[in-house]
Amino acid sequence: MLQGRKILLIVSGSVAAFKALMLVRLLRAEGAAVRAVLTAGGARFVTKEALAAITGEHVSDDLWAAEAEIGHIRLARWADAVVVAPASASRLAQMAQGLAEDLAGCILLATRAPVLVAPAMNPAMWAHAATAANVASLKARGVRFVGPEDGPMAEPESGPGRLSEPEQMADAVRSLLSDGPMKGRHIVVTAGPTQEPIDPVRYISNRSSGKQGYAIAAALSALGARVTLVSGPTNLAAPAGVALVRIESARDMLAACEAALPADAAIFAAAVADWRVAQEATQKLKKEPGAAAPTLTMALNPDILATVSKHAQRPRLVVGFAAETEHVVEHARQKLERKGCDWIVANDVSGDVFGGERNTVHLVTRTGVEDWPEMPKGEVATRLAARVAAFFQ
Ligand code: C5P
């Protein structure tokens, strides 16, 4: 609940700005007080009057009008959280540069409150290296992101760049303001399969759905942690408030995990491919009439869990997963030693765990083993998140 919390909403220029009005309604319905700042771009898409009516407050849109009362400092101090939704490509660039050319820019520099950003832009603008660099530098400064989502745009195009739905943005605000036990902690979680390319159109992968890892990321976020979820290809949406980094191969996953450090804990739930094709063909392999089938030579992939376990920036708690079909606990104990991690969540995959909704796990630590009963993956995640929180108490 957001009862009594003060949220400053900065609305910048995007056709998706109408969703900001719905976000205000959701936040106020939970008891939050919302004040809005409209940028010049934002004013092209929603009116000051609509925002004033829906927030029930005066809407600020002019640095100089507010200056007599040093409005930017007052608003920056008033807020428990600052939410930029939608955040245009230009607004992200201004934030990354620390430009204070308008009221929103001044507030974003002056505030000490946590900042949540919900980007909205054309997929090509989102994919541009300049935007990626701006996002990376904002994340490094602790700015939280929700979305963007992958889906249809206002223009006849589709791809990542869609503003998150109001409900997701409201979830992310709740996580940002959480008083949960993991507040302020940064956790890296891996999830899903990896895809190892054979040639430009073929790959080797596995049946991991990513459900368990995504559920763990969501459970930790709900406890107030800042979560970076490094995920292979899945059909799942990013849990609200979680920073999702999508990768394909094991090597990309390792690079993304190392880039996400430092972290307080890392939880490796991904089903990483042990091997990749040694030489990825640059052109599609041809099936020539009468020719024999090709032989693929494999190379060992890096072990991400083992690498992070002995990393110079090793998180205090490193948790691995072990999918086993027999001697589950015994193998998990050996894995704990071999990989140098602190805990292993050993799951019995002799049933339909991959893609299924339920899981039976054993939590193997250096001091003992806990056998958890069969339960939904969401509950495994909640329990594990609670154990992680207890570790940091
Ligand atoms: O050795 P095994 O694949 O059974 O280990 C499973 C654990 O190690 C999981 O936590 C998995 O995410 C992690 N792992 C990894 N990098 C690999 C292989 C496994 O991080 N290349």
Notes on the structure:
The protein has 393 residues and is an alpha/beta fold. The chain has two domains: 6-177, Rossmann fold, CATH 3.40.50.1950; 198-391, CoaB-like (Rossmann fold, 3-Layer(aba) Sandwich), CATH 3.40.50.10300. The chain is 34% helix and 24% strand. It has 14 helices and 21 strands. The strands form six sheets. Strands 12-11-8-13-16-17-19-20 form an eight-stranded mixed beta sheet, with helices on both faces. It has a five-stranded parallel beta sheet with strand order 2-1-3-4-5, sandwiched between helices. Strand 16, helix 13 (328-339) and strand 17 (343-348) form a beta-alpha-beta unit. Helix 1 (18-29) runs parallel beside helix 2 and helix 4 packs across helix 6 (103-110). It is globular, with a radius of gyration of 23 Å. Bound molecules: cytidine-5'-monophosphate (C5P).
Question: Could you name the key traits of this structure?
Answer:
globular; Rossmann fold; alpha/beta; binds cytidine-5'-monophosphate; 393 residues; five-stranded parallel sheet; single chain
Topology readout:
Layout: E1 6-11, H1 18-29, E2 33-38, H2 48-55, H3 63-67, H4 71-78, E3 81-87, H5 89-97, H6 103-110, E4 115-119, H7 123-127, H8 129-140, E5 144-145, E6 149-152, E7 158-162, H9 166-176, E8 186-191, E9 196-199, E10 202-204, H10 211-222, E11 226-231, E12 243-246, H11 250-260, E13 265-268, E14 275-277, E15 298-300, H12 304-309, E16 317-324, H13 328-339, E17 343-348, E18 358-359, E19 361-365, E20 369-371, E21 375-376, H14 377-391
Parallel strand pairs: 1-2, 1-3, 3-4, 4-5, 8-11, 8-13, 11-12, 13-16, 16-17
Antiparallel strand pairs: 6-7, 9-10, 14-15, 17-19, 18-21, 19-20
Helix pairs in contact: 1-2, 1-9, 4-6, 5-8, 10-14
The structure holds cytidine-5'-monophosphate (C5P).
Cytidine-5'-monophosphate binds at residues 190, 250, 268, 270, 272, 274, 301, 303-305, 320-322, 335.
